[in-house]
Amino acid sequence: MTPAAPAAFEHSPALSGGGELGELIRTHDWSQTDLGPPEHWPQSLKTVTAMLLLSPVPIVLLWGENGIMLYNDAYSVFAAGRHPRLLGSAVRQGWPEVADFNDHVMRVCLAGGTLAYKNQELTLHRNGRPEQVWMNLDYSPVLDETGRPAGVIAFVVETTERVRAERHLLAEKDRLTRLFEQAPGIMAMLSGPEHRYQMANPAYANLVGNRDLLGRPVCEALPEIARQGFIELLDEVYRTGIAYVGNSVELTIQRTPGEAEETFILDFVFQPVIDHEGIVTGIFMEGHDVTQRALAERRMQFLDALGKATAASTDADTILATTTRMLAEHLGVSVCAYADMDPDQDGFTIRGNWAASDAQDIVGHYQLADFGRLAVSNLRAGLPLVLNDTARQLPAHEAATFIDLGLAATVCMPLTKQGRLTALMAVHDRAPRVWKLEELALLTEVTERSWAHIERVRAAAEVRQAEQRFRRELELQVAERTAALAQSEAQIRTVAASSHLYQWLLDSQGRIVYANPTSLTGASVVREHVVGLPFWDAPWFTATPGMSATVERCVREAAQGASDHLGMQLRLPGGPRSFDFSIRPVLDESGQVVGIVPEAVDSTARVEAEQALQQAQKMEALGNLTGGIAHDFNNLLTAVMGNLELLRKRVADDSPLLRLIDNARIGTERGASLTRRMLAFARKQELQAEPIEPGRLIEEMTELLGRSLDPGIVIETQVESRLPTIEADPNQLQTALLNLVLNARDAIGGQGRVIISAHSERIETRPGLKAGTYLCLAVSDEGEGMDEVTLKRAIEPFYTTKGVGKGTGLGLSIVHGFAEQSGGKLVLRSEPDVGTTAQIWLPAMNEALLPLPPIADIQGMPFATQPLDILAVDDDALVLGNTAEMLRDHGHRVTTAQSAAQALERLKEAPFDLLVTDHAMPRMTGAQLAEEVRRLYPDLPVLLVSGYAAIRPGTAAEHLPLLAKPFTQAALLRAIAALGERDRP
């Protein structure tokens, strides 16, 4: 390096700056390189060098035949440990491990050619050790002043992490695909009340004999299932929305047309599929074939029970009698018998049998030859005689012997001893029957166990036979499962074609090659109209503003080897739908993109359900907050109101302070009105429910509103002639109707129509309402209406679109709280510039949900005159002191307690005439205290005081007299007087 080196660039301002590499280039001693001193550099070299220094992309310039390297800061990061030694070095010496590769690059580009590599794999030694990397490389020639190539410029972008990620995703996808293909569980999706098949996986299709299922109802596709009561189960799940779980359920399926039905045992679940409105739209079926396991368990249970039943027996006839009875009952046959052979091996005597009530007793002596040649040859050879239908399988004269005994199907097991037939055990049925391998194996084992238990001989031979049977059964199971696996693999392509996903296949240019039926149905198009179109110009996206550009970008990126995943909302012929959209490239063996696969999952139901849940949680939180604030405020108002009342009694009638005290009392009454509204929204207000005739109430309210509203407003009524009686608080219902009418008045600006309507309707399924008959009371206007955002927030407390001072924002909140507390619902419908309809749905009287019983009407009732010993309980010291003073002011003797536990101690210390207790207290509520007092002191009257009635239903406290906070001294004294009247005989 020479001190004069920087001066060589003084006349090249373009080479100023450039970060760390700019400074290194200006201070490097270039006279020792093929480039020579900078003042002799051609202008083309200086220009390209200045350009690459300002670029954020990794760029390296290879100048001259030896490729002297100049690069920028971004490339120095890529070079890692070889920086800054690479600067000024020949590319072959700078990167010796890829010298041949760079030689090829220099030859091609210095000859005027260009090169480009996507995800080029190379092994570099950047940090002193070999490292496998992938890069996107673009090489172009750099021309000198004569127009000839003098160097090569390379753009270097490392893609190692992306390549590794893509390879990992492909491997993971292959693994999941293999798992799905080998899944043993059965799955199917049914839609609608007819239970039509939408989807069935290979295992399910194999179970039912690979029938044509999709689009057909279960009762049509599987008629034998319908006969076995499963359609009724599906109907029940669809009707109630409650899942059904079946364990070890037995059913028969005709897997081969014309053949006998086969018995299977399944563990399964019928899971209802519920949409965002809470309506069941289908049923998802999932289960496992546990036939072999269940049969093995039943077989083992039977053998265990048989062993226990015969273990203590030493008499052969007793053992065989027990065995034939239990075996016949287990297999469900008509007759089970055992016999001893005569020495000639032809005659035999049936010494004992078990026969069903409608079967013939066959005890007696017989000749084996009378039962046919097959019986003789098989049994003497030690082989079982298996006849599924004696009339069909035997000649008529041989079958006659069986038929005369009422035996239509038979299995007879021989017992040979030293090569001679010595005994028989058989089961028979009155009707033709296909004997199963499991039944034959069980009969064989029972026969062997029975004779072994009797004779205690040939134990080793029987063990070997049992092992052989086990191997045969195992081989049979292995063969069946191997065949099932092969069949499921053959069906996977059919399942893919019927996928519920939207699936497409594009060529590398983004043109549609294939669209599956689900996607075509979603856009209401046929395949011929979309094949060949650019994917982004297809009808799935063109109706949604801005979506075509987004999809085109994703396709372009996929064509470069990238994958993407995003959520989108599309406008389709069936309405707006939400989707989880993904797109990935299809690569050939060389890593080139040969196709593109987009997929989309319809997530509309999930998105709508999440939005509904968020709104419900928001309103629940607001309700709890509002109710809690109102309750605490009621405590404060109780103390303020009571003390003002006591203070007024102590001030002279002509005192100027009376006006101030009365103004303060009016303020507390307004505060109490506000808390009642807040409790109405929180659904914790105290309702005075009574029967109401809706028609009369609407008529009375219409007359009142007609006189009260502006002359420019016309009130119309549309009321059915026969409306059901409802049970609700009439004052709250009138307030709710008044609020809705006032809102309608404001919406039409004081001029126009307001329609009050009422009708009854039977509701079976509707979100927020139980099944039953309801009254729908509606108020409609033709005003400015609300947009979707405003409509969603309309029932929030304190939310209003009116100007300052023109509304509290509690009107609709109060109506909403009243409706839900009365067992109904408030429904709002609105459209901007069209109008708004507010509906209050309330249950008919015989189906109404009644609130907690309040204290009886005490207006006008005289105060108690006799002084009482009263125990007052409240955890709020301010409210407790106020209550005690109001009682003492009337002459009562009052003892106070600040908790339920303290109150119970006071009751142990002295007798009391009355207990007055707050409800909302920590550890033990007033209602719980009242229950305990009723148990310990059943004659002690209890008055419950609460800011809201949150009393657990079904308890004794549910029927207690209730005084709502805030209360006046007069209300408190009348409540005590009413309590005395109530307890008087």
What features would you describe in this structure?
With 985 residues, the chain is of the alpha+beta class. 41% of the residues lie in helices and 25% in strands. It contains 30 helices and 33 strands. It has a 6-stranded antiparallel β-sheet with strand order 13-12-11-16-15-14. A 5-stranded antiparallel β-sheet has the order 2-1-5-4-3. Helix 11 (291-311) runs antiparallel to helix 12, helix 21 packs antiparallel against helix 22 (657-681) and helix 21 (604-649) packs across helix 27 (877-889). The protein is flat and about 135 Å long. The termini are far apart. The relative contact order is 0.04. Mean pLDDT is 82; it is low at 1-5, 457-461 and 847-862.
Topology:
Blueprint: H1 19-27, H2 43-54, E1 59-63, E2 68-71, H3 73-79, H4 91-94, H5 99-110, E3 115-124, E4 131-143, E5 149-158, H6 160-182, E6 186-191, E7 196-200, H7 202-207, H8 218-221, H9 223-226, H10 230-240, E8 244-253, E9 262-274, E10 280-289, H11 291-311, H12 316-331, E11 335-341, E12 347-355, E13 364-367, H13 373-380, E14 385-387, H14 390-393, H15 396-404, E15 409-417, E16 420-429, H16 437-455, H17 459-497, E17 502-506, E18 512-515, H18 517-523, H19 527-530, H20 547-559, E19 564-572, E20 575-587, E21 593-602, H21 604-649, H22 657-681, E22 690-692, H23 694-708, E23 713-719, E24 726-728, H24 730-747, E25 752-763, E26 772-781, H25 788-793, H26 811-821, E27 825-831, E28 835-843, E29 869-873, H27 877-889, E30 893-897, H28 900-909, E31 914-918, H29 926-936, E32 942-946, E33 962-964, H30 969-983
Parallel strand pairs: 23-25, 29-30, 29-31, 31-32, 32-33
Antiparallel strand pairs: 1-2, 1-5, 3-4, 4-5, 6-7, 6-10, 8-9, 9-10, 11-12, 11-16, 12-13, 14-15, 15-16, 17-18, 17-21, 19-20, 20-21, 22-24, 25-26, 26-28, 27-28
